[in-house]
Each structure stands twice: as structure tokens, then as C-alpha cells.
């Protein structure tokens, strides 16, 4: 769940500090990451396959630890919808910009507590609601606190519970375009999800190399080593292999749903055309 202290802010740092942007310096912070108290966008330019891309990650406070957790996904939903609204306003503008700044959220990482138990009703509620407006990717937080067996079992359990509760996470079955797509995505849905991640912004010396890692009683967990945890797999998934598709699903499905609803609700808006410019912005 998006509870406090699950390592969300740490993972944001890990993402920007890991290979994609090793060049950027000044990150070797020793100070403790403060509790996140508001929704905050953090953007960096990263280079992917020779193409410069602006990646923005929106860090959110943890919640679900209040006495009353009712509708606790609302601030997130509001933020997501505000970005759709901004985009829509630009789109219907007659003198519309050639390039509409795209702040729409292309993917939402949902942090699940590594309890080994069932998902909480709140987790299910959150994902059920938000999966209708954004691409949800569930991740198991702080995977270094589980043994390998516990991790495998917990991943299975979470997948089962999501299925039983009819929660559609990304990549959604209904959007598989052909058989090849379906085969590839079935593998992701049935084996990779939810990625069990470890985050850290501290470097350690391992075999002559500086690596991002966490010190545990069993040794250093290297966050970018795929035999230690699935951080690198998650990173490659969201910013390499599935980036374009995340953006397309956002535009063609989630944004389109919002847009249709808005135009329906408010007959005042003129009809809008669909041919938005390609952009290189990505927002998680
Ligand atoms: N064991 C372990 N601890 C972690 C991991 N990631 C972060 N932590 C620790 O967990 C604590 C909270 O980390 P944050 O990144 O601030 O967590 P957060 O989810 O942003 O917390 P809030 O902003 O308060 O919701 C810190 O002491 C981190 O060092 C991880 O992968 N494994
Ligand atoms: Mg935080």
C-alpha cells in the first residue's frame, strides 16, 4: 500500500541515480529522506538509446495510515485528472500549441507492504479505483526484508488476490493487440508482476565497483543486480521496453475516457481533434 515509509522516495532517487543518469552528480546524500507530505514532481533529463528524454516522477505522501482511510486515493485521482484537464484545455484551444506540454501520468507505481499476508482492503480499493484512470503497476516494497521463498510465495498471492478482485493492472489483458502481444504480456502478468524492488541511494564498494545497495546482515543487496532484486527489471520495463505503450494506453484509453466524459458533462466545449503531436515526455 501507499503507506508511509515503504521506500517510495528512496526508489525515486534510486531510479535517477541508477545507470540511466549516473552522470548527474551531487546525489550522494547522507541525510535521511524526510517523510513526504505533499505530491511533488521531480524531473530529470535522461538519455535513452541516444534520445534525450525528460522523465518526471511524481512522489506522493504515504497514506492509509490515518484513522479514517476512506477515499484516501482521492488526492492522487485529483492530481491525475488535473493533468488530463490541462491537456484537454490545450487541445481545444484554437491557437493550440504545436507541442502540448504533457504532464499526464503515464504510470502509477503502487507500493505494497512486504507483509507476506493478504493485501489490505485499502490496497484493493485504491487499485480498483485508480486502475480506471491510470496505468497501475503494483510493486512489492522493501523486498530485501523477505527471503527468496517468501518473495516467490507473496508475489503469487498478490497476483491471485488481484485477479480474484478483478483488478486490472498494466499491461491490461483487454488491450493486448494480437497473439504475440498476448503471449508476451501473459508472461509479464503471470511471472514478473508485481516487481519486488529494493531502493537505495547509498553506494557501496563491491568487487572494485561502486554499486547502489543496502547493507543487510546477509551482505550487500545490490539494487541494480537482477539476481538480488527486480529494481532493474522494473526500470527497464517502465522506461525502456514499455514506455511508448504506457504513453499510448494513457492517451488512447485513460485520457480518451476522461475527455469523452468531460465533453459529455459539459456541452459547452467544442469538439476536439485527435492529432496531438508526439512528445518525449514521460511521467510516472
Ligand atoms: N529495507 C529497506 N528499507 C528501505 C528501502 N527503501 C527505503 N527504505 C528505508 O525506509 C525508510 C523510509 O523510506 P522513504 O523512501 O522515505 O519512504 P516513503 O515511502 O517515501 O515514506 P513517506 O514519504 O513517509 O510515505 C527509510 O529509512 C529508508 O532508508 C528498501 O528497499 N528496503
Ligand atoms: Mg516519501
UniProtKB/TrEMBL annotation:
This is Neuronal-specific septin-3. Septins polymerize into heterooligomeric protein complexes that form filaments, and can associate with cellular membranes, actin filaments and microtubules. GTPase activity is required for filament formation. Residues 1-265 form the Septin-type G domain. Its main location: cytoplasm. It is found in: Cytoplasm. One of its GO terms (cellular component) is cytoplasm. GO terms for molecular function: GTP binding. SUPFAM superfamilies: P-loop containing nucleoside triphosphate hydrolases (SSF52540). It comes from the Eukaryota. Filament-forming cytoskeletal GTPase. May play a role in cytokinesis. Keywords: Cytoplasm, GTP-binding, Nucleotide-binding. InterPro entries: G_SEPTIN_dom, P-loop_NTPase, Septin, Septin3. It holds the Pfam family Septin. Residues 262-284 are annotated as: Disordered. The gene is SEPTIN3. CDD domains: CDC_Septin (cd01850).
Amino acid at each position: 500500500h501507499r503507506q508511509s515509509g515503504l521506500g517510495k522516495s528512496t526508489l525515486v532517487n534510486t531510479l535517477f541515480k541508477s545507470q540511466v543518469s549516473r552522470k548527474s552528480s551531487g546525489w550522494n546524500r547522507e541525510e535521511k529522506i524526510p517523510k513526504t507530505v505533499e505530491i511533488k514532481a521531480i524531473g530529470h533529463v535522461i538519455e535513452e538509446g541516444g534520445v534525450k528524454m525528460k522523465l518526471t516522477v511524481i512522489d506522493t505522501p504515504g497514506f492509509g495510515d490515518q484513522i479514517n482511510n476512506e477515499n484516501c486515493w482521492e488526492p492522487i485521482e485529483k492530481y491525475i485528472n488535473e493533468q488530463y484537464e490541462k491537456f484537454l484545455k490545450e487541445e481545444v484551444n484554437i491557437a493550440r500549441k504545436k507541442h502540448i506540454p504533457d504532464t499526464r501520468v503515464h504510470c502509477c507505481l503502487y507500493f505494497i507492504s512486504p507483509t507476506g499476508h493478504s493485501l489490505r482492503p485499502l490496497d484493493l480499493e485504491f487499485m480498483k479505483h485508480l486502475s480506471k484512470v491510470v496505468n497501475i503497476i503494483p510493486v512489492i516494497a522493501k523486498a530485501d526484508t523477505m527471503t527468496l521463498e517468501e518473495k516467490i510465495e507473496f508475489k503469487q498471492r498478490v497476483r491471485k488476490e488481484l485477479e480474484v478482485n478483478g483488478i486490472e493492472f498494466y499491461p491490461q489483458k483487454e488491450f493486448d493487440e494480437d497473439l504475440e502481444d498476448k503471449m508476451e504480456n501473459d508472461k509479464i502478468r503471470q511471472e514478473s508482476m508485481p516487481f519486488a524492488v529494493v531502493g537505495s541511494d547509498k553506494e557501496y564498494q563491491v568487487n572494485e565497483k561502486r554499486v547502489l545497495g543496502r547493507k543487510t546482515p546477509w551482505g550487500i543487496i545490490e539494487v541494480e543486480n537482477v539476481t538480488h532484486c527486480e529494481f532493474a527489471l522494473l526500470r527497464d520495463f517502465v522506461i525502456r521496453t514499455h514506455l511508448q505503450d504506457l504513453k499510448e494506453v494513457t492517451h488512447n484509453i485513460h485520457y480518451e475516457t476522461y475527455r469523452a466524459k468531460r465533453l459529455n458533462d459539459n456541452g459547452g466545449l467544442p469538439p476536439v481533434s485527435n492529432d496531438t503531436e508526439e512528445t518525449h515526455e514521460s511521467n510516472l
